[in-house]
Design a protein that fits this description.
Elements lengths: L1 E6 L8 E2 L2 E2 L8 H7 L2 E6 L2 E5 L3 H20 L5 H32 L4 E7 L2 E6 L6 H28 L5 H21 L7 H14 L2 H28 L4 H29 L21 H12 L3 E6 L2 E7 H5 L11 H4 L1 E2 L12 H11 L3 E6 L2 E7 H13 L3
Parallel strand pairs: 1-7, 5-6
Antiparallel strand pairs: 2-3, 4-5, 6-7, 8-9, 9-10, 11-12
């Protein structure tokens, strides 16, 4: 079990090595899909909190391990009902502790002006989706240490409760003693210097502070993180061959760390390639404007099928009203296309996410990733002057990589 925070623009990278880029796909990463899937629980300080479906598996496993193994050995005189009840309560408090760990990361990030999109509890613990990399090493350091510090504090708190409850409530002693130990284990595990674990982020912050180079610091920390991941994988396989099937769990954790470490470095490389380049360098300028009175059928027959384009600014006179996309068309039943107008089916301008022609491409990357957007209108003085799409960014990255820039 571990807590982790990931920057959301990681969804854009797939295979990017230093000096080369090979963006093979335009879909989301496995981590990004995980962050968006699941059951919403609500929000805290504007941070969406979710339960991924895989969480129920590990919740059941933790409860079973407590009720069927730990409590029967430590408290053999307990009834089955008592073991299950205390096991369930302990599991809930454990995942509450994991959530507190992630909230600590998130609230410190928010205090530094960094947007936090969501927190997802899943099979390995928790993931906080932070919208961007910290701008300075001291911010990275504080955000990274906040989680383990919270887990350590909870470990001390639960340990204190277990001591204070001795002779008063045996179930409270049992639950709090286990929670105190597991929170300390969670803190120590996360401080392993393997990026993107919290200890790896602390290491990156120190290297970044000493060198002044985020990309170099990320490369070193990610390499160590991948090494830690491989150690977990090989250690887990060795355990399986020794007859300990818990090694499968260790190998799975190692696989996740290794992939996340590689992806985190790729993300920084992409940000580096886009930094300092405005939207105007890559945006499509020849976007055919269409009038709001045009019907969907006319749009499909005369514009979409003939040109292959998928989005059109809806303009009346010199004023942009909104944007019409293939997605908008598909939302309307086919039999209504001859009568439904673009003015009725479009997304109004005031509901659109948009960027200016002078905006930095690295911020566009973050916006597309955080909001799960494939294309954005480029608006200048209230008029849609072009479009920037995911394909434009990928093509730009690929061209720069081919030229060695």
């Amino acid at each position: 079990m571990f807590g982790q925070h990931l920057a959301s623009s990681q969804r854009f990278d797939d295979e990017v090595d230093e000096g080369t880029a090979n963006p093979r796909k335009q879909g989301v990463t496995e981590e990004d899909t995980m962050l968006r899937a699941g059951i919403p629980l609500g929000s805290f300080h504007g941070i969406s909190i979710r339960l991924h479906y895989s969480w129920f598996i590990v919740f059941a496993l933790v409860t079973f391990a407590l009720a069927a193994n730990y409590f029967p050995i430590a408290y053999p005189h307990w009834s089955v009902t008592a073991r299950v009840a205390v096991g369930l309560a302990t599991s809930v408090l454990f995942f509450g502790s994991v959530l507190a760990h992630e909230l600590a990361h998130s609230l410190v990030a928010q205090a530094a002006g960094i947007r936090v999109h969501s927190i997802t509890l899943f099979i390995l613990g928790g993931l906080a989706q932070i919208a961007q990399e910290p701008g300075r090493p001291n911010i990275e350091f504080r955000v990274a240490l906040a989680g383990p510090a919270t887990s350590l504090a909870l470990g001390v708190l639960f340990g204190t409760i277990s001591i204070a409850a001795a002779g008063i409530s045996e179930p409270l002693v049992a639950a709090s003693a286990w929670l105190g130990l597991i929170n300390i284990v969670l803190a120590v595990f996360n401080l392993i210097p393997g990026f993107p674990l919290d200890g790896g982020r602390v290491l990156r912050a120190i290297i970044w502070w000493r060198t002044g180079n985020l990309r170099s610091a990320t490369r070193i920390a990610s390499a160590i993180g991948r090494g830690v991941g491989y150690l977990f994988i090989f250690g887990g396989i060795w355990m399986v061959f020794q007859g300990n099937w818990g090694g499968l769990w260790m190998a799975f954790i190692g696989w996740f760390i290794q992939n996340a470490a590689a992806g985190s470095y790729h993300q920084v490389v992409l940000q580096d390639m886009l930094q300092g380049h405005p939207v105007s360098e890559v945006m499509m300028r020849d976007c055919p404007a269409v009038p709001p009175e045009l019907t969907l059928e006319e749009l499909v027959d005369d514009y979409i099928l003939g040109s292959g384009r998928r989005c059109f600014p809806v303009v009346e006179g010199n004023r942009a009203l909104g944007l019409m996309t293939v997605h908008n068309v598909k939302q309307v039943p086919r039999d209504l296309w001859p009568t439904r107008t673009l003015g009725e089916a479009m997304t109004p301008l005031d509901r659109l996410k948009w960027v200016g022609p002078g905006e930095d491409l690295s911020s566009v990357l973050q916006l597309m990733s955080t909001e799960d957007i494939n294309q954005l209108p480029v608006v200048d003085e209230g008029n849609i002057v072009g479009m920037v799409a995911r394909e434009n960014l990928l093509a730009f990255i690929h061209t720069r990589a081919e030229l060695g820039k």
